[in-house]
Amino acid sequence: NAGVMQNPRHLVRRRGQEARLRCSPMKGHSHVYWYRQLPEEGLKFMVYLQKENIIDESGMPKERFSAEFPKEGPSILRIQQVVRGDSAAYFCASSPRELRSNTGELFFGEGSRLTVL
Amino acid sequence: DAKTTQPPSMDCAEGRAANLPCNHSTISGNEYVYWYRQIHSQGPQYIIHGLKNNETNEMASLIITEDRKSSTLILPHATLRDTAVYYCIVRRPQGGSEKLVFGKGTKLTVNP
Question: I need a labelling partner for B47 at 20 to 30 A (CA). Which of A18, A54, B39, B108 fits?
Answer without folding.
Answer: A54
